[in-house]
Amino acid sequence: QVQLVESGGGSVQAGGSLKLSCAVSGYSVSDRWMAWFRQAPGKEREGLAAMIYSGDLPVYGDSVKGRFTISKDNTKNTVDLQMSSLKPEDTAMYYCAADLTRARPLDPNAYNFWGQGTQVTVSS
After folding, report:
1. Arithmetic mean of pLDDT, 84-102
2. Shortest CA distance to 70 belongs to which of 101, 40, 38?
């Protein structure tokens, strides 16, 4: 059974940083696409960052390029999202996703497995 469990969310002031972590069981993150998404109330789920090999360049959504960094720890089977220079518009529920089914790594319809999410709130 595949399980993805996000952690690290919370409340932070604008300009601050947070690090999210996704612990994966029943599925190896090594050599497989893993991604982070977010969804704010009333908005569509947005692809933020995705990566497959630690040595390759990740893919980032335009809204987070230069501010967010995705990384994997194949030993711990985790995927992290380091977020910096946070803005109030970054407020959302953040999700980890696994098992890419089509060649669009930032497409929320392209993943089979999802975590329950972790809330990030950025105040001005």
Report:
1. 97
2. 38
